[in-house]
């Protein structure tokens, strides 16, 4: 694909996502109260989201489930829609496809709205627990180097280039990966690498992950799970600034 075509494709993707995200409070189109009820209590045959993702939506390394709290609304809706349509297969808990199908499109938007409204504060994985669970742990500063600068000699761009500073997310397309659960980050990067997950826009994550070694993945995940959202010189993130 030529560079101009790639740029055009990215622009189209952003435009479409922005159109979906426009309006409402930071682009959220959903009933947060109904979403909270489903998240906490489930609906029909669909169990409560908190049974796997935690009361606070922060995920669980022991279960391999991701943090949903504070994640971008449009991204969350897309993942639920992809699970419902079997465009993404849950090979961790093996329930997300069934759960997503059990919710109406409105319910899926409501759950996404509630999860997006939860805290964006950094809550790192407990790396002692991660080790006790038998997971290899990477070297944090080596992971930071890839997150911030990539490894261009090996065809690995920086995570920063799409996911923003320290992976804090670039809505509406790119999710928050900073502060994500360590085990989930490892699992997803390996799934992108082997192609068992393939619902990434334009195959971007598969193109990146295919060049990453296991050590790269462990190092990046070690840094990202504890990566601060701000710097010492600026304690505010883009969402804190006026939008008008």
The CATH level-2 architecture of the largest domain is identified as Orthogonal Bundle
By secondary-structure content and strand pairing, the structural class works out as: mainly alpha
What is Rg? 17 Å
Number of helices: 12
Q: So, the CATH homologous superfamily of the largest domain? A: Cytochrome c-like domain
List the helices and strands and how they pair.
Elements (H helix, E strand, L loop, with lengths): L2 H19 L10 H10 L8 H4 L19 H12 L11 H6 L3 H13 L9 H6 L7 H10 L10 H4 L18 H13 L9 H6 L4 H12 L19
Helix pairs in contact: 2-6, 4-6, 8-12, 10-12
Give an account of the 3D structure.
The protein is an all-alpha fold and 244 residues long. It has two domains: 3-117, Cytochrome Bc1 Complex, Chain D, domain 2; 127-240, Cytochrome c-like domain (Cytochrome Bc1 Complex, Chain D, domain 2, Orthogonal Bundle). Helices cover 47% and strands 0% of the residues. The chain is built from twelve helices and no strands. It has helices at residues 3-21, 32-41, 50-53, 73-84, 96-101, 105-117, 127-132, 140-149, 160-163, 182-194, 204-209, 214-225. Helix 2 (32-41) crosses helix 6, helix 4 (73-84) packs antiparallel against helix 6 and helix 10 (182-194) runs antiparallel to helix 12. It starts with a helix and ends in a 19-residue tail after the last helix.
Keywords for this entry:
single chain; 244 residues; mainly alpha; Cytochrome Bc1 Complex, Chain D, domain 2; 2 domains; 12 helices; globular; disordered N terminus
